[in-house]
Design a protein that fits this description.
Radius of gyration: 20 Å
Order of helices and strands: HEHEEHEHEEHEHEHHHHHH
CATH architecture of the largest domain: 3-Layer(aba) Sandwich
Largest sheet: 3 strands, parallel
Strand order of the largest sheet: 3-4-5
Distance between the termini: 21 Å
Strand content: 5-15%
Structural class: mainly alpha
Number of domains: 2
Shape: globular
Amino acid sequence: MGGAMAATLHKAGWDVTGFDPSEAARKSAADAGISTTDSLPGIAGTPYAVLSLPAASIVETTVPQLLAAPGTVAIIDTTTSEPATSKHMAQLAAAQGAAFIDAPVSGGRDGAATGTLSAFVGATDAALEAAGPVLQALTGGNFSHIGGPGSGNVVKLLNNVLAAANLASVGEALGVAKAYGIDPATAAASISGASGGSKVSANMYPTWVLTGTHNSGFSLGLMARDAALAVEIATRIGENPTLLTAVANQWQDALALLGPRADFTEIARTVAPAITPAGAPTTTPTA
């Protein structure tokens, strides 16, 4: 995702320097004509920084390094992070005269590569204005300003756990259809035009599950993490979402069977193996 967003900004005329601890990732960016660096402190004070990181803990160690030198205007964090982290990072940035916004994104690698991502934005009005030019380039204006710092993270996590629930429930439903001798693709298309339809039934299952390709580019490990984190932030404020908790547990079971590197659409292999050519899990998961 980070590489695709860097390429989009580069094509839009931005002077981009990419950092990634992975040499392979830096080489891929360089092959696309993007300048790279292997030193995060070396880009401290860059006017605009876009983050796409694996976890909130890495956001917490990265932002102070970017703010270590003057010059930062805005940090746009597209990580699916935690609200408390974003609130803290926004405070750190404001103390340095910079803006920080949490802007976790949806749209996958295709959206990142074409500048058509959607974003859930948590920020003050002033911070959003400061980050606006970069956010516009990445989303084409397709973003929602949810509220103050951290609120973008909350709604993105809720979005992801709802998607996790839908991926499991659509799989089970299509498994029932197949058991009755109904073509799952026909059932998915019919459902998608009615009240039970969704992007999952209309696009994800036909594209990645029923074909057996399972190559969406988003890992099962990340979706299992997001579902668990959505439940965690709910319990922190006294909520007890029983259905979402059951969903998060189901994804943890799939994670144990398939491993974190499996595609997130492979959840279908655990809830309805008969509908995907990939079939039920039969091997030891890849760590």
